[in-house]
Amino acid sequence: TPITVRDRTSAAPYPSSIAIAGLDGFVSKVSVTLSNLAHPYLGDVDIVLVGPENQRVVLMSDAGSITSASSGLVLTFDDDAGFGLSSTNQIVSGAFKPTNFNGTDDFPLVGTPDIRNNSLDLFRGSIPNGVWSLYIVDDDERDSGAIFGGWSISIASTTDFPPRITRHPE
């Protein structure tokens, strides 16, 4: 379903949700793809993924340069990508690590996500079935955009005991 990124407010729909059912076991990997993203200034677009157990990961916030007008972008967020989005350069289609350049963004109905673990690995070991939601806001004035092709989520699961979650000290 297309998502309208409205100027200086929440997107429509807000949230955009996908219900997952029928997966056995526990999450071992998650990736998210935005299809056909268009926006005059991507630095305005902030996106958080919320899992069925209310885990929250910022996929992108304040990424892209002031001249980062985009059209037709396909962005995949994957912890195995080589690097995150740029804060100063033009963003192009590809795979990127979740990227948050401003930890103080507030998402209506979600609040301010904890950025100490801004990795899709946060979902590892959780239950994959349930509602996964994408919350998108445009945090500045003068422009709006859309994700014309909507979004998709890829979830790998394992029937083994939950994978051990390793947290790195700060």
Point out poorly predicted stretches. none
Helix and strand run: EEEEEEEEEEE
Overall pLDDT confidence: 90
- Give the biggest sheet: 6 strands, mixed
Number of helices: 0
Q: State the helicity in percent bands.
A: under 10%
Oligomer: single chain
Number of strands: 11
Question: Which structural class do the helices and strands define?
Answer: mainly beta
Gross morphology is globular
Beta-strand percentage range: 35-45%
User: Gyration radius, to the nearest Å?
Assistant: 15 Å
Distance between the terminal alpha carbons, to the nearest Å?
38 Å
Supply the key terms.
170 residues, 5-stranded mixed sheet, 11 strands
Give a quick rundown of the structure:
With 170 residues, the protein is mainly β.
Set down the secondary structure blueprint:
Blueprint: E1 3-5, E2 16-20, E3 26-39, E4 45-50, E5 56-61, E6 70-77, E7 94-96, E8 99-100, E9 130-138, E10 145-147, E11 151-158
Parallel strand pairs: 5-8, 6-7
Antiparallel strand pairs: 1-10, 2-9, 3-6, 3-10, 3-11, 4-5, 4-9
Written description of the protein model:
The chain is mostly beta strands and 170 residues long. 0% of the residues lie in helices and 39% in strands. The protein has no helices and eleven strands. Strands 1, 3, 6, 7, 10 and 11 form a six-stranded mixed beta sheet that branches. Strands 2-9-4-5-8 form a five-stranded mixed beta sheet, with no helix packed on it. A hairpin with a 5-residue loop joins strand 4 (45-50) and strand 5 (56-61). The protein is globular and about 50 Å long. The model has no long low-confidence stretch (mean pLDDT 90).
